[in-house]
Amino acid sequence: MVPTHIASRWVVGGLLAAALSYGTAGTASASNGGTAVGNRTVGKPVPSLVGSTLGTITFTPSSVVQGQLTVATGTLDSSDAGQPVSLEIESKPDVWDAVATSTVGPNGAFSINWHAKIIGMFSMRVVSGALASSSASVSTPETSLSVFRPVVATWYGPGLYGHRTACGETLTRHILGVAHRSLPCGTPVTLYFGSQSITVPVIDRGPYANGATFDLTSATAQALGITETVKLGFTAERGLKIAPTNWYPAGTTGPTGVTGVTGVSGASGATGGGTLAGGAPAPS
């Protein structure tokens, strides 16, 4: 299932052009060292000169850990059957990089594989190479793709409930948050694990062992279905702060007596069945 709680748009890493990973299928050789797609070349930024927009595009999954495979599928006009198409990412406003290619099927359908090595939330589209003039090219509507940085995460809590965290919160078995060595207290961190994601604040310092980047509170780990040290994806939104919220397992109720949702979409298609409380912006 596609994650439903993705808040961060902070892009980390080096220059976009230096980090693009080119997975191709059905490509043609280009004399300038790239891959030709009509008059567009993989790895070469071009202005947005698309003449019209049609068809559809979907990424599966629409949120991935850096380096993970995502597949762009959709349709263009059936008249493009047999023509090359390019998957493009908006590297800066109205400038696009072609990052992968494929060929349109007999009914106008396409499927393009791409292993994303960049990190952040990006606008993506597929452009048909059927026409010679880029100003007359056709693209699918733009859609978003989220790419998370992979890190090691542990979890903690039992034996420490009731204690104050380094950020001044009282640690409980229900509080959602993470410990990090340097991110400011209250920084929203979006965690991606399997088919699920959740955004929680930094509420503590650590971890300091096992090469881990984050220490999840027990409620955060439980909400994501984590029971041991794992590798997950993350982005962080610097410059903002949020207050921690509480989470309660499915079938239980919180102090307010109201059972709500966790903010995490589970594999069953339900919303998780826990309770979120709070969520107001934290003081600066």
Compact overview of the structure:
The chain has helices at 16-19, 218-224; strands spanning 28-29, 35-37, 40-41, 46-47, 52-53, 56-60, 63-65, 69-75, 84-92, 95-103, 109-115, 120-128, 138-139, 143-156, 178-179, 188-193, 196-204, 214-217, 230-236, 245-246, 277-278. It has 284 residues and is mainly beta. The protein has two domains: 16-141, Sandwich (Immunoglobulin-like), CATH 2.60.40.10; 148-278, RlpA-like domain (Barwin-like endoglucanases).
Low-confidence stretches: 1-38, 256-284
Series of secondary-structure elements, N-terminal to C-terminal: HEEEEEEEEEEEEEEEEEEHEEE
Number of helices: 2
Approximate shape: elongated
CATH topology of the largest domain: Barwin-like endoglucanases
Please compute the radius of gyration using only Cα atoms: 22 Å
Distance between the termini: 35 Å
- Beta-strand fraction estimate: 35-45%
Largest sheet: 6 strands, mixed, barrel
Provide the domain count. 2
Supply the CATH class of the largest domain: Mainly Beta
CATH superfamily of the largest domain: RlpA-like domain
* Overall pLDDT metric: 75
Based on helices, strands and strand pairing, what is the structural class?
A: mainly beta
